[in-house]
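BACKBONE GEOMETRY TOKENS:
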Amino acid sequence: MYSLRNFCLIKGVGRFSFSGGGGSEYVHSSLPFSGTRIGQFFQAEPQLGNQYVMDYALQSYLKQVMPAEVLDSVSADLHRFGGRVAGEINELGHRVELEPPQLQQYDAWGRRVDHLATSPAWKQLHDISAEEGLVEIAYTRLHGPWSRLYQAVKIYLFAPYSGLYSCPLAMTDGAAKVIEASGNMMLFHRAYSRLISRDPKEFWTSGQWMTERKGGSDVGIGTETVAVPQSDGRYRLYGYKWFSSASDSDMSLTLARIADDNSQVTEGSKGLSLFYLETRDKQGDLNNIQIQRLKNKLGTRQLPTAELLLDGTWAHKLSSHGRGVAAISDMLTITRLHNGLSAVGNMRRMVSLARDYCLRREVFGKKLIDHPLHIQTLARLELECRGALYFVLEVARLLGLEETSKASEEDQLLLRLLLPLVKLYTAKQAMVVASEGLESFGGQGYIEDTGIPVLLRDAQVLPIWEGTTNVLSLDVLRALNKTQGQVVQVFMADVKRRLATAKEEVELQQACRAVATAADDILHFTFGTTNEAQSLLETAARDYSFSLAKTYIGALLVEHAARCGSQDIDVYAAQRWCSKRLCLVAERHACGYYTSESQMLEKDVLFKSSEKNS
């Protein structure tokens, strides 16, 4: 216990201090942590500049690929938007992270209200998305086949700063694509015009409610929702949607099985039809939908994701009877592209922050920029980001050709193969870059207040949403089988065409040989295993897909370096990428990784070790 007599006032040169317990203590004001002082050093935090201006790889790609007159007409908008992304949009995205959605199921008197409250910043991001034409650009097509690429660039810039508002935009874009292709004039006039509107008051977002309790990717088995026909031509839906992202959307597309007069449904994919529904009625009440709960997720906490009970929800049939799975293929095309854009955007933000930080952080007597090992680590992350960027933008370019009927048969086959590849590979790259990038900040990278951990948490959804890596690898095999190998032949021809641009560039010859060898190995594996067991191909599907993706990126980087006049940084990027093991599937096939014996041993390694310890 302290009493007044225990305190003695000490007068010194520095300042006054109190001491208790019978002793005296002098505290000098010049000591850095004395009294209430906490020291004079504070680490400068990384800063963001204009995200378009500072992205050399993006600008270099657009100059090389986009016609000069188109680039001239969009560059001012991209320049302005790059500044808005780093400023206003970044601030709103941060606020959304701090103010996650909340669900109030009952009012004070016990009535079921299911009020879903989102951050005011979330609503502002809705308005900005409309104003910027983040969906509209791809559909008004003012720039012809280049409109989709222009939109993709804006989504890439927007996504990592948007507090995950890029997710409802992906589904809105996909819904617009489906409705446009459906030819349903009623929905075209009512919904489509709102989905692509630049007027915030008119702009709608769409959900995508496919996943049910039995699973997401296997909708043929997993979908239990029943659609009951009504006398006015509409349907009432009864089912439980297990994972419904953007639950605050204005409308949604969903799958269901139509009940016949005996209340029987057709099982499997052939029994599924696609339906359009609006989430609220004219009075603003939920359309016989109950929000059971919000998902407690690892990341993407900004996004309201819910379990929904459809209890007589009014809906319109959008597809032909039993053609629901085919009808959503257009939506999957769009959402997989968006997934790739979000993955690359996430990588770009992490690398941008880490790059700026290395100019500000001093360790062991010098700035991080002066530590070669640190710079080597960040340069490797930049290389992943750059390769992924060229990959996803090339897919967007091909999609723009297809949407304006300017794609050749070869372009369409190539797009069919590249879409699952770009989604699966960039998602895995994003996880690696997010983890390594976070580590480059040391302990500060682990602190939530810095805004860095959210990049890692949110990146983890990318390999899961719209099909896991394995599911998409099997989709690559489906593309191969359905086209009887044509997709791979077109792929090889495209790779060789790109390599041909570098045939006179001495510095790129080794990189060219590496890509050409990998392409030949892929071709040999593809057609050399066609008579082997299907299980071999399925087991190899993941390595096969990764080999295709890495080889294609290598070809893109080589071509880019050659067309840029062999600038040092572009040549170096191509050389370093092509020094990787591009065709892992051929190596592992030669070592017997995919045989039936190997499959049995892998199962034993996983389960028998557990049995021995039990």
Q: What stands out?
A: Confidence is low (pLDDT under 50) at residues 1-27. The longest strand covers residues 306-317. The radius of gyration is 28 Å.
